[in-house]
């Protein structure tokens, strides 16, 4: 941490700030320039709240040098983390191919889609039982009944299931039944929920908030990890920008950036990012070419009748063709 | 709702879409242009999911004409709502002057600040007991103990208290003790929590999410209202933009816009928006000049030692001076 | 400038970076922490391109301590600049009340509006002769003929005129005829045009680009000043954000922020920011309450027939009422 | 165009709006719902300014159904445009591989890089002679001398050259010497410059503005096309968002979206988007996997000494390896 003093601070002011820093257990190193003095703070600054210094009347600004996260930081954990989802490995070259309907509707629907995506090469089944909807008047998901449908299909088809948890109320049920627990974009900073995920044995799929910076996103993973659960997969699903033709802007630079900053696996959800099915094909290929550890794609056997987000779903045949190309691109990338 | 068909759709396609619309209980009116056909849907479209039509292969786009909210909509409720917070009225010319420390630290601290702000003209006391923090290593608030301190000060000083609820776990305690329950920006779309607020007797202060559109924000109020609690005050606290010199960009256009769209009161929190104490003075004045129904301002007797967000707190004397000017501006505005 | 070396850099790497810094005429001061070394650079770094260091293989990041602008910097010029626009003073408590139609249409139209706004208390007349339009098929302004109309009205009514320059082609004509030359948001980083403004005797009104940071905006003023013209007035007109209900988001925090960073006057254009006439009244009051040095407002005698941007224009009577309130608010603020 | 009237408009109001529409040469079709009336406007609305209707006191909103561009619109020109850059074809499966230094520094530098990139498989040479820089104190490019160096290298190596035009002053020189004239992001809405490009025989490379929507970007291409030059290649180079770890956010959804909206070729510049050389490799692969018609990449033989933007340049060997992978990915995609 570097503290920049206000211009033309005198020795008395410098001393006072220096003493304040030392009370926090840090060493100091003072650099005087022409009119400007800066103080380098030496020690573990990751758990010190910089605001303590920002309010000091002699301080102009506080600059961070270290990242504020530890457990998720690649600097302290150089090897890729491989997350095991009930036998399916994700990360370090192991690809997650997650697919399924936006919402669970009926057993027959989910079963049919699950068989199709498995045949196409998917290794996990997704489906929403609890749905976060902007409007209280929109379909909110089947709830526990939807969860039971997913479990029944899992039994039949043999794919691990991924579904979203919206409330601490269902934590135990999810821990028992769900192979990979998804935390949605709107709950990425529901810190109360994040803390409770430390008590769960299941791996967590943490979606990026619509306006979360990389650092905030990793900090939310750090919340889960610091609570005791280190099995976190990150999922980019688009950010909110000024462009409104697409629902959100898919940020594929997140793949190489997160690769550098953290050891956790990163997958991409191109279906929610754009909100249009005809964007999924090209964005899925681009995601894998960018080096993502997997894809989460909405597939529906009858998008026109889907209870939610049908507009962004692929039909099973289209998904099957897509996976063929995607796997060829993965080959080219992984050979390096 | 208006449905625009793909260019050069034939009569058969038009008929199929028209039939689909009618199955949803709407009437239709068809307008054929040169190459382009549009279908006007007549009836109550507010509870119909437009995505059902968007996925139709003959549909180019679906355009909404009506707002998707009812209870919060000024069109259906032309008079300003006045929310009663334990005797303090807010809305329709009644100003909320909420002030207090970011975090509750000690009884003495809160008591001292409460006395000062009351003397300055504030009519509600704020203070965080549960704090949403980006980092798991930052101070998370005193929790229930902080709530007890607020209650004790309320007893002593006589100002209604405002504090943030982060989890359904404390719903009953808040309903018992807190005069105005704040839902923070990061929980604005924690739909599970919003639904539970319908069971509470207390009014709700709903902060705008960092990237929430006006419509999404009002829809979150609609969630609370549709669950049974119509006493909602909206609070603008800055949105996230590309500008990073300030923490967030305070959007004061929200005041006239919300005035037009909804009958609920709107107040402004200039302290969190900018994140710098020296922005509060001018932004508070601007907020009132813009027609806001109140201000929520951080005041601390010793900002330099504040456990969180000291950088954006005013000292009590500064707050007192500010309120004098603010009230003069309010006079000019209200006289109209 | 502070240079942070990569973690665990050895002495040899530190020496190499230090030598590189010294070749640029700067002194160095080295701070070694646990695993992390930083180098403080002492000297005038404002004209050194930081990218030279960022590409160094041993450098992790480069942090700026000083602002990159000099002439516009309040640190080097503590007193407010007062810009003289053909006798009308702007800045340091002197308010610019600029009003007029979006586009110049006819002599009669401009004359009628000019008389009305003068009677209401305006001290400058605006009107677009050259219009930047998103579509090549929209009305592009009357061009030189529009300029002549403005001049004729100025002769008649006696208000200095403000109009936008879009191309170096008309530089001499504007220098001869226009009292305050406006550079629009879309040309804020037309660096070629900015440089040529140094040859002009007239003051410049520099609008903020839709996505310009405060620093970039001030740097564009610095371009004009460094070219020889120090009479620059800054004009906030809204920035582009995710919110699309309003045309742009008016950033009133710009007023106190620019007040701190620069000595140049800052005025607000609430008409273009929101794009709706019913937002102008409250935002104009808020702007003045925030401490702005003036307002630029679109006024049209027949907004329904305006050739462009009628939707955001006030009628003269409305403008007159508004100025009365605005001046009362200005009184309250200036008394401090 | 659809015009939505204010709620509960009476027949007289409807008639007045209808008459206004008819004076603009459009036919009308009226749809009356419960409380809400809409008017469909039939005819060529692309050249009618919607603001004329928005200001009408009886109108609630105006909704566009047709895109406002014609020449660039795929609906009116279904086949891909192939742009010929001095013999190198771009579009419809023909890839542009443009590479070279950010700034032209010396003949030897450009010659060496040009030979390397040609050997690696590039088919055009880029290099900046005129540089748009945020600061007036940064290196502004060699100007005409830089252009001469590019021409000399072109003579020697035989690659068409691409370089940025910043001012109408050099239009004739560029038309004579430059094979593909680049218009930079900051000049994307320099409408005066765009109009003049119609007089040029050379194809234009139009970069997306940092905050330009797809529609605005295409409208700027429409400006050039409407002025008489239909050879436009679009180049995505990142947009400005809240994320600041990268310089800009690369929006690869632009590739499929533009493919749908326009027939013009689309290429990607991953070097400027991220601003970090280590992002280029993965983003270049992703761009081609997304279906882009080419790549524009900064290559420098000595990035550490580059006069500008060295941080985002690849060394020639790295570029050569990258192109090998890229071409394999292009094969997979094009086979479809």
From TrEMBL, chains A, B, C, D:
Please state every residue range assigned to the domain named DAHP synthetase I/KDSA: 82-332
Q: Does the keyword Transferase apply?
A: yes
Q: Which GO terms describe its molecular function?
A: 3-deoxy-7-phosphoheptulonate synthase activity
**What positions does the domain DAHP synthase ferredoxin-like occupy?**
1-67
Q: Which domain of life is it from?
A: Bacteria
Q: Provide an example Pfam family for this protein.
A: DAHP_synth_1
Cross-referenced InterPro entries? Aldolase_TIM, Class-I_DAHP_synthase, DAHP1/KDSA, DAHP_snth_FXD, DAHP_syn_2
Transcription keyword on record: no
Write the Enzyme Commission number(s) for this entry. 2.5.1.54
* SUPFAM superfamilies for the chain: Aldolase
Keywords carried by this UniProt record? Transferase
Q: What is this protein called?
A: 3-deoxy-7-phosphoheptulonate synthase
Taxonomic lineage is:
Bacteria, Bacillati, Bacillota, Clostridia, Lachnospirales
């Amino acid at each position: 941490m570097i503290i920049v003093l206000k211009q033309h601070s005198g020795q008395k002011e410098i001393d006072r700030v220096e003493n304040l820093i030392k009370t926090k257990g840090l060493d100091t190193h003072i650099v005087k320039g022409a009119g400007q003095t800066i103080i380098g703070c030496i020690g573990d600054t990751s758990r010190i709240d910089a605001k303590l210094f920002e309010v000091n009347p002699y301080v102009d600004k506080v600059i961070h040098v270290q990242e504020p996260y530890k457990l998720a930081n690649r600097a302290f954990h150089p090897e890729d983390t491989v997350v095991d989802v009930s036998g399916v490995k994700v990360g370090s070259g192991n690809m997650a191919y997650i697919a399924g309907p936006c919402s669970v509707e009926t057993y027959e629907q989910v079963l049919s889609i699950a068989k199709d995506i498995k045949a196409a090469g998917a290794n996990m089944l997704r489906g929403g039982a609890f749905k976060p909807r902007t409007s209280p008047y929109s379909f909110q998901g089947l709830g526990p009944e939807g969860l039971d449908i997913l479990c029944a299909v899992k039994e039949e088809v043999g794919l691990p299931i991924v579904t979203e948890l919206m409330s601490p109320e269902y934590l135990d049920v999810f821990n028992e039944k769900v192979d990979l627990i998804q935390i949605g974009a709107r709950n990425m900073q529901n810190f109360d929920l994040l803390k409770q995920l430390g008590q769960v044995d299941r791996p967590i799929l943490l979606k990026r908030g619509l306006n979360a910076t990389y650092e905030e996103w990793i900090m939310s993973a750090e919340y889960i990890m610091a609570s005791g659960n280190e099995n976190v997969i990150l999922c980019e699903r688009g950010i909110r920008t000024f462009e409104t033709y697409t629902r959100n802007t898919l940020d594929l630079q997140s793949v190489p950036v997160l690769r550098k900053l953290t050891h956790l696996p990163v997958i991409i959800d191109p279906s929610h990012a754009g909100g249009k099915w005809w964007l999924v094909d090209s964005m899925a290929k681009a995601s894998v070419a960018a080096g993502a550890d997997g894809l989460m794609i909405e597939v529906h056997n009858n998008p026109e009748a889907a209870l939610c987000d049908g507009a962004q779903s692929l039909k099973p045949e289209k998904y099957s063709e897509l996976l063929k190309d995607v796997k060829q691109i993965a080959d080219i990338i992984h050979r390096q």
